[in-house]
Structure formats: structure tokens, C-alpha cells
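We include this case.
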Amino acid sequence: MNQAIQFSEREWWDEDIQAVCFMAMVNGFQLTCAIHGKELHRRYSEEQSALALFIDNRWDLEDEATRAIQDQMEDDQGWVWLSSER
């Protein structure tokens, strides 16, 4: 595990962008990560809310976010998205 990247256990549903958002601390700086609800439902299930799916799959999604952060995949606003939709 890369000690320079840490995730808080605070995630939230953003209605405006229809995504679950979560924070990463990268070398002392906060970075917002997100994944669209549609992407969570496509990957995991239609039966639960997107937020519940994120919580149930947190470890895998944080691993994916870690790789995206290490690959410097931030968008123009400095966010890391775990899905291709924006």
C-alpha cells in the first residue's frame, strides 16, 4: 500500500453530477475522487443505491483510485474519475 495516498471514510452522493464522491489525501493535499452511479450499477448491481454499492466495494474502488492517482489521471478540475462518463 502506498502510504502517501490515504482515503477518508467519508463518501457522499452528489445529486448534481449523479456520482458518489470521496476524498483522498495525497502527500498532504486533498483530492476529490468520484464514480458515476450508472457506472456502479453497471459494475455491481441494480438492486442497491449507488452509495451502498460504493460502501460494499470500497476496497476495490480505492485500489482503482490509487492507480489512477499514481498515473496522474486528474481531469481539468483536479478530480479523479473512476468512470469514463463526465
